[in-house]
Amino acid sequence: MSTVKLAVIYYSATGTVDAMARHAAEAGEKAGAEVRLRQVARQATGGEREATEAQAAHAEVAPATEAASADDVVWADAVLFGSPTRYGNIAGQLKTFLDSLGPQWGQGLLADKVYAGFTASQTLHGGQESTLLALYNTIHHFGGIIVAPGYTDPLKFVDGNPYGASHVTGANNDEPLGDADIDALRHLASRVVTVSERLAS
Ligand SMILES: Cc1cc2nc3c(=O)[nH]c(=O)nc-3n(C[C@H](O)[C@H](O)[C@H](O)COP(=O)(O)O)c2cc1C
To answer: Which GO terms describe its molecular function (predicted)?
Structure first.
């Protein structure tokens, strides 16, 4: 059986989704996949939060991640997209990247792959579910196979998000990832790899 190719493609302004993407990528590798960790170009929109000291420090130590390209999506058998919640939707930067995939979409190169998503929001009911559902609108147009985590493991009753994985950054936008968040990210990544393997066989 050939190795599953997993692309983890994310946008992050202040480092939260970046940290989430790294957990997902690591879990994908542990599950046996070849992984590409890629970030969508960080462009300030003017409305973004200032990074706290800890977030700026994280950005400095985090190895520079390669920029995402259309080829990363075409290459992959499975893709995990990560985005901060923005007004209950994905960030414009990730949307711009998705919109740039028109030529690949037109050739059917985005279809028949496994997709899922993860997000972070500042508040508990601030739109994580609507963000993931908004992301999945695009995946339907790709002809992608959305592999939602559902409640397929007892740990999903702890993080409580059957649509993907998510984290609440809190009033100061700097709440670190907790065990439940990390477990959910690991579960999400290993599940998309396992389902991709089953599809390939
Ligand atoms: C323009 C803008 C819109 C936002 N909209 C929401 C929102 O709808 N709900 C929410 O809880 N947080 C919202 N936030 C907070 C972000 O979701 C939070 O800062 C983000 O998850 C941090 O991710 P990052 O560190 O990877 O950039 C918004 C932030 C900005 C800058």
So the answer is: NAD(P)H dehydrogenase (quinone) activity
Nearest CA to ligand 1 atom 5: 86
Average pLDDT of the segment spanning 157-170: 98
Of the candidate CATH numbers 3.40.50.720, 3.40.50.360, 2.60.40.10, 3.40.50.2000, the domain formed by 5-200 belongs to: 3.40.50.360
* Ligand 1 pocket mutation, candidates 23, 39, 55, 122, criterion most atoms within 8 A of CB: 122
**Three-class HEC string of 81-107:** EEEECECCECCHHHHHHHHCCHHHHHC
The average pLDDT across 56-67 equals 72
Q: Does the pLDDT value for residue 50 go beyond 80? A: no
pLDDT at 141 over 80: yes
Ligand 1 site, CB within 6 A:
12-18, 47-49, 84-88, 120-123, 126-127, 169, 173
* Predicted pLDDT of residue 64: 78
